[in-house]
Amino acid sequence: MIREKLAHILLALAASAVTLTAHAESGWNQLNMTQGVTHISREIYHLHMKIFWICVAIGVVVFAVMIWSIVNYRRSKGAVPDVTLVHNTRVEFIWTIVPVFILVAMAVPAARTLIEIEDTSKTELTIKVTGFQWGWQYDYLDDGVMYYSRLDHRSDAARELLSGIDPESVEHYLLNVDHPFVVPVDTKVRLLVTGADVIHSWWVPAFGVKKDAIPGFVNEAWFKIDKDKPGLYRGQCAELCGRDHGFMPIVVDARSKEDFAAWLKQTAAAQKQAAAPATPAAAPVPTAATEEKAPWPKS
Amino acid sequence: MAESHAAPSDSSQYYIPHGSPWPIRASVALFAMMLGAVAYLNDWAGGWAFAPGAVLLAYMFFGWFSTVIGENQHGIFNLQVDRSFRMGMMWFIFSEVMFFAAFFGALFYARVLSVPWLGGEGVKVFTNFILWPHFEANWPTNGPAHVGGLANGEFTPMAPTPIPAINTAILLTSGLTVTIAHHALRAGNRARLALFLALTFLLGFTFVGLQAHEYGEAYRDLGLRLTTGIYGSTFFMLTGFHGLHVTIGAIMLTVIWLRVLRGHFTPNRHFAFEAVAWYWHFVDVVWLGLFIFVYWL
Amino acid sequence: MAEVLTTASHDDHDHKPHGWRRWVYATNHKDIGTMYLIFACIMFFVGGGAAMLIRLELFKPGLQFFDPQFFNSLTTMHALIMIFGAVMPAWTGLANWMIPMQLGAPDMALPRLNNLSFWILPFAFTLLLSSFFVPGGAPAGGWTMYPPLILQTGAAFPMLIFSVHLMGASSILGAINVIVTIMNMRASGITLLRMPLFVWTWLITAYLLIAVMPVLAGAVTMLLTDHFFGTTFFTAAGGGDPVMFQHIFWFFGHPEVYILILPAFGIISEVIPTFSRKPLFGYEAMVYATASIAFLSFIVWAHHMFTVGMPLAAQLFFMLSTMLIAVPTGVKVFNWTATMWKGSLSFEPPMLFALAFLFLFTIGGFSGLMLAIVPADYQYQDTYFVVAHFHYVLVPGAIFGIMAGVYYWLPKWTGRMYDQTLAKWHFWLSTIFVNVLFFPQHFLGLAGMPRRIPDYAVQFTDWNMVSSIGGFGFGLAQLLFPYLIWKCVRSGVPVGPRAWEGAHGLEWELPSPPPYHSWTTPPSDAVIARGAEH
Ligand code: HEA
Ligand code: HEA
Ligand code: CUA
Ligand SMILES: [Cu+2]
């Protein structure tokens, strides 16, 4: 409520800015978390809205009392202070205990969702995701398919300092990659997330998945995209990882099970004959695995 | 605590110096030292870069403390000032405890969490399966890549005996001797005080000597170095910082001893002595923690 | 040292040292407090300048001004300067000025240490700021300094580490001084539960400082040895773990954020009763709430790390412990509200800032609570939603708290009343623009804009422009603040001891401006009785 109200005030204030920007409509309605395309992402969205409205409700009550006092107990209106009102065990007890119940009401559904998220059992497909400076490496462990995914060339050109290219003219500016991450819908896909050099974080809002990619460690995450929701889903690296942290997006290409199977088969074959598993564009990236074999520098 | 009275005791007012040149010299000294360290670590200068700061710092400590001691000897500190000093020292020691806590925290984290995880326990099965397939969690360790150590990546951990055990005995004894010295001071038995105080810092320096010997052995024969994985890191950082504190403590005890010989301190007014004694006990207790968690278990 | 001894005996306590010595050799709590406050103000402008550059680059998509690396340096330095250079020194400055006056003490307990803890700071920040000019540029790994990234810093790396060491030393010494002053310098009759809440909150803040600053020092020391001496605390290959640093850092970091806000709670608890002409509601509850917040702040740290892949049990524990903090904080908010209830309110500048604090800090608290909900945090973490959260608690929280304090006590310090109309302009501009600046960042975060990025996808343009406009507005509004103080010092109207009619507390029993040494003779019981009622 407060948020909405303020949002409108802001809209007014921002009117000046609107004129400055090419297509205002696109941005103004970007106000809330996405519902996403997985069961979990929807759970998270509803949890988010629930806490939000509880906070709004509390806010309305608390702020109402404050505003009431500010309006009614003004000295200018001749209000005389009731200096005897210094404490009241009953109300103090109430406003200590009531919040506790409210918190429990929030914690229970939160815990339930969390337990669901942490359940990585019964996954049907396992893919290793390695973040590196600056891009992502996808490794289909069971099928010997591996490729790198980096910022696409048009964004890369436009993002140069004073490139003179108008970002508005680049479609999906900064949110497009050379090789999207292909996965099947309606399949519980397990990601094994790790980092090659520094910490990165693999985040696709539409899946409600954000997992840090930590060098030398492997984190598990999973998602199951709705059967009827194939398509492209975009995300970004969500942990500061150096100069180009802002330029290592994630694009997931969710395909029907059949299409995915076909793609996998074909890519596997292609990569077999091609000597280098990596795309020519990609410099060989030290995965933590090779790192292990490499003789560790004795300092 | 009960409210304190600014009431006059042996000196009517709470003594407030009207300006002092020492703190700013301390700041400059610290700054100079850090600049030296930066220059050295960035290969902009050699080790000598530390020297100016270090010299300044030594000069500052000497000057600052002689000033305060001088004031004290003039009896311008009342009991309330004395109490301020005591509280200050206690909280300073507490901050030191928390500094060590950080490194103990690192030790426990490695032993209880990160090493087992690398070994594939708990939530990190795949860490071991994919990244470190040949690694089995154990302690002590220099990690899955056998960092540091001898040519073959191996190393021998530091045994709790003989030296560490002896050192434990030494420190515990020194804790005892300093207490005896304190009682002697209270009882006005100066000869005894001087003797046991001397014993205390001699024991302290012996400890440092043995520690140095132990380090030499570790570096030469055991392949145990600062760079020997997480065991080497925690071992040397913990024992190293402790050793540093023992050295400082022993030096402070020596200063107190010299002051005793000069006839400073009275049976009921000897803050400096007690401060150093507390510090010594703190160093003592930290060592027990080290002996148990670093050497023994 | 001779000069010290000679001055020691004589009792003319209003004698001031003159010239540069008065400041460089300062041992007087007011002089040192003044230096702290001036330093904090300068740093606020420097850190704010960095923030302005950040908002400038983020005004529209595409890189117009800075290389991404330099942008990251701006972000990192902005945070370090604001937290360690602006807010913490401002609090220590206020503590120096007010605590001895409020406790009936002649000065701080350890005057020389006091000088040291201040004078370390200018050197620390010289070291930190000069890192902009060394090869590799200023630190760019974020104020959280996570390895391995921070280990990629160039020549600035040791400068960062050592400046953090210096800042830590300064805060620890300052905190020791505060604790000793409060515990040992109270005039007889001022029992702990008769102390003003500003003193109480600062006492608890000082405990937090002594407990966590050494831990930060330890953490950065490990970074130093990992970088230069081959230790492997934060390297898996050697059996360490990069996440270990995060645990140690946040064990410091979370209490740190309460270090930034608790003194503000104290100031609000002094200002609201004064301008409601009514004693603070639930004084003891306030004290206990503050203590519980401080206690809880030690067991919530991993709420900054929900995405690092912690075991389920750990995530649940840290979620619950974090949510619990809403309870004591709520008690405070409710007590402040109840203090205004049936009061007789007037709206001088300190009260205005206190009221803005009340509303806007609470909003920041709500977003904090949302962040505590682990599954939701998976979506919020490292987005502008977090940035919005902490700026709501830090800017209209901590900064407004400082403003309220300065506007409250400035007449006491200078003996002159400032231009209240101008101060109200400062208030209204700040309050409006701070919301224009930070409220849209909630939307940006929820819509998926990550933090710590110099450039963004076009759909984030509109709200970023709004935010930047708010930022410039807020920034320009701040220029009124130093001008106003300068004007007050030069040409303010003289005021009596009790500058605000509703004001209670020992500081108001002293003349304005107070004597060089506050209470050379302890206040009489009558004075205390008058002063110490809250
Ligand atoms: C002054 C500083 C300050 C303060 C006071 C707080 C207060 C709180 N913070 Fe905040 N926080 C920061 C500074 C601060 N924070 C900073 C700087 C960061 C980012 C660091 C970085 O990554 O760079 C951060 C990040 C941060 C995170 C991590 C986000 C992420 O990176 O993913 C979380 C998660 O739990 C969190 C939670 C909270 C909570 C629960 C509170 C609570 O204390 C709030 C309690 C207050 C209220 C709830 C409102 C008043 C209460 C009532 C009206 C009673 C009734 C209310 C209910 C029952 C709901 N904070
Ligand atoms: C107390 C702490 C504090 C304070 C007061 C502020 C104040 C401000 N912060 Fe700060 N901020 C942090 C603590 C703080 N911040 C932290 C901890 C981070 C996280 C860093 C990290 O990710 O590592 C952060 C990050 C951060 C970001 C995210 C950067 C990123 O993720 O890349 C942004 C972006 O808008 C921002 C903006 C601002 C602005 C506009 C102000 C304004 O309130 C500043 C207003 C003050 C002034 C402007 C100075 C006074 C005026 C002048 C200097 C005159 C010149 C003015 C003009 C030319 C207009 N801050
Ligand atoms: Cu990769 Cu940020
Ligand atoms: Cu926190």
What does the secondary structure layout of this molecule look like, with pairings?
The complex is a heterotrimer of chains A (299), B (297) and C (534).
Chain A: H1 2-20, H2 25-28, H3 39-72, H4 89-118, E1 125-132, E2 135-140, E3 145-149, H5 153-158, E4 181-184, E5 189-195, E6 200-204, E7 209-213, E8 219-223, E9 231-237, E10 249-255, H6 257-273, H7 288-293
Parallel strand pairs in A: 1-5, 4-10
Antiparallel strand pairs in A: 1-2, 2-3, 5-8, 6-7, 6-9, 9-10
Chain B: H1 22-41, H2 50-73, H3 79-118, H4 125-131, H5 163-187, H6 190-222, H7 229-261, H8 271-296
Chain C: H1 2-9, H2 20-24, H3 29-57, H4 68-103, H5 111-130, H6 156-184, H7 197-228, H8 242-276, H9 283-296, H10 312-324, H11 326-340, H12 349-372, H13 374-380, H14 384-414, E1 416-417, H15 420-446, H16 461-478, H17 480-491, E2 493-494, H18 525-532
Antiparallel strand pairs in C: 1-2
Bound molecules: heme-A (2 copies), dinuclear copper ion and copper (II) ion (CU).
Commentary on this structure:
The complex is a heterotrimer of chains A (299), B (297) and C (534). With 299 residues, chain A is an alpha+beta fold. In chain A, 39% of the residues lie in helices and 20% in strands. In chain A, α3 packs antiparallel against α4 (89-118). The radius of gyration of chain A is 26 Å and the shape is elongated. Chain B has 297 residues and is mostly helical. Chain B has helices at 22-41, 50-73, 79-118, 125-131, 163-187, 190-222, 229-261, 271-296. Chain B is elongated. Chain C is built from 18 helices and two strands. Chain C has 534 residues and is an all-alpha fold. Chain C starts with a helix and ends with a helix. At the A-C interface, α1, α2, α3, α4 and β7 of A face α4, α8, α9, α10 and α11 of C. Bound molecules: heme-A (HEA) (2 copies), dinuclear copper ion and copper (II) ion. One heme-A (HEA) sits between chains C (144, 257, 260-261, 303-304, 322, 325-326, 329-330, 333, 362, 365-366, 368-369, 371-372, 377, 380-381, 386, 389-390, 393-394, 397-398) and A (55, 58, 62, 99, 102-103).
